[in-house]
Hints:
mainly alpha, DUF7992, 7% strand, two-stranded antiparallel ribbon, single chain, DUF7992 domain-containing protein
Amino acid sequence: MSLDVSPPDPPDLEPAFDPDAYEDADVVGDDYRREELDEYLHDGAWERAFGEWAEHTELDETEWGIVEDLDLVPQFDFFWDDFADRVGYHAPGLPEDWRERDLHPDLDSWARVSSINASLTELGGVVSDVLKSEYIEWESAFDAPDDLPDF
């Protein structure tokens, strides 16, 4: 299946934002290289990754319409995780209380909410991979301590 929509504008990364603020973040260091990643996103990485993701996503046009209506794409965040030598990301998602909050008239099942949340996570992963493999030229600066035990 594929999604036939135009790529949205890439998210704008706030240079001063700290990914450690995420509950699920396990990031070491303080040089997140957000300005460089933002530049790469706007120089084609986002469009390239979105196209790759759209070719294989299970998301349909109605579900993508919900993503656009709720303005979820600008909520993506990407940052350099030096410890793991990767681009970390935080994908937006629909909250568990979507029904109580009456977020969108086309949100009518947990299956649809789960599909949207999983697909946005997959998009974040594709963007992260494209950034790492095709744009990033720097090396990780993290050096493991010499006194690590052998396993």
